[in-house]
Design brief:
- This protein folds into 2 domains: 163 residues, no CATH class; 152 residues, no CATH class.
- Helices cover 62% and strands 0% of the residues.
- It contains 18 helices and no strands.
């Protein structure tokens, strides 16, 4: 009888799947590495554009965790393991880095509702989403509220009025502008928007670039932000958190495809490095397009995916209705990722 009891206990003992080895890393560890790699770029943003970016990060994080908890409760899932994996926090930070520092608080609320509630949990949660959640949230508010989403601050070195922490809080939560005449006096067009508008009006690129908002290669401040995000990306490559294929394909394709246009007509086409160091290209190349869930699985697929992001970004920047097309490019390639994976499967062992 004792043996039968032992047998029943053995049969009821639950074990994990083979090979019964602990994972080399966890989702939480990977997400923490991504957050750590974003720190230099976040500090650069704050240095050039003020504390508003830090407020946006905190707002987006609060709303992301709130909607994460609500969706988990609605789906009958335990809160602790999913809240503690930091995936919602990474989504919030990536989104916050794409919006103007003084965007109203409800922008983050709406964006995180679509990013966490729709793009993530309606597809089954972490690991099941087809589209990058941060880019879904960003595109929703960009299309819905274009005026608010294009009201960027000038770099602090060029600003007549630089809102501090208290003023930034007042503007974000109440819409009041102390010591200013409103949005028109406080904000200005981004370097990419200035380039696009100037070229479409027939002005020479050399004339447009004489504006003080431009630096050596990209926009003033933006080029340094891109450099610090690039350093964070190299940290992820060093830690093998991401593969090199997507970043190299994105940046390399942008340089390769924009170079002939610049050589043929330098008066109306930016220098290739100006494309790289302006807007969110470097951030997308290392932190957004490298998402393993919404991207491609094979190395060849990653190269095609990254090249597609680079080409679509250039097409939208040159002929589209938006000055920067990185978010749209990522979402379009997310949609194409399953097809790319189907035709770039690695050869099976023994074939």
């Amino acid at each position: 009888m004792a043996k039968q009891g032992d047998l029943r206990m053995t049969r009821s003992f639950e074990t994990g799947g083979a090979p019964h080895l602990p994972p080399r890393t966890t989702v939480a560890a990977v997400m923490l590495q991504v957050l750590l790699a974003l720190v230099p770029g976040v500090l650069a943003y704050t240095w050039f554009f003020g504390p508003g970016m830090l407020i946006q990060i905190m707002l987006a994080t609060v709303f992301a965790l709130l909607f994460e908890a609500l969706m988990l409760r609605w789906r009958g899932r335990s809160l602790k393991p999913f809240i503690n994996d930091y995936s919602a926090v990474v989504t919030a930070v990536l989104f916050a880095l794409c919006i103007p520092p003084l965007a109203p608080w409800w922008i983050s609320c709406i964006a995180m509702l679509f990013a966490i509630g729709f793009a993530k949990h309606l597809y089954g949660g972490l690991g099941q989403n087809v589209f990058n959640p941060a880019m879904v949230g960003y595109v929703v508010v960009l299309i819905s509220f274009p005026q608010v989403m294009t009201a960027w601050l000038p770099p602090l070195a060029l600003a007549e009025y630089s809102p501090g922490l208290v003023d930034s809080l007042a503007i974000i939560f109440t819409g009041q502008f102390p010591a200013t005449g409103g949005w028109d006096m406080l904000t200005q067009a981004t370097p990419l928007d200035t380039l696009k508008t100037g070229v479409e009006s027939g002005r020479m690129l050399s004339e447009i670039s004489n504006s003080p908002i431009f630096g050596d290669y990209g926009g003033m401040g933006w080029e340094w932000i891109a450099i610090w995000f690039g350093l964070g990306g190299f940290f992820l490559l060093y830690k093998r958190t991401i593969n090199w294929h997507v970043p190299v394909a994105v940046i390399g394709t942008v340089i390769l495809f924009s170079l002939p246009f610049w050589l043929a007509a330098p008066s109306s086409n930016p220098f290739p490095l100006q494309h790289v160091f302006s807007g969110g290209l470097v951030l997308a190349a290392f932190f957004i397009a490298t998402d393993p869930v919404s991207g491609c699985a094979s190395n060849r697929g990653r190269l095609i995916f990254g090249a597609g992001v680079g080409i679509i970004t250039l097409v939208i920047r040159r002929w589209g209705g938006y000055p920067d097309g990185v978010a749209f490019a990522v979402l379009l390639m997310n949609m194409a990722a399953p097809l790319i994976d189907r035709y770039t499967r690695p050869r099976m062992y023994g074939e």
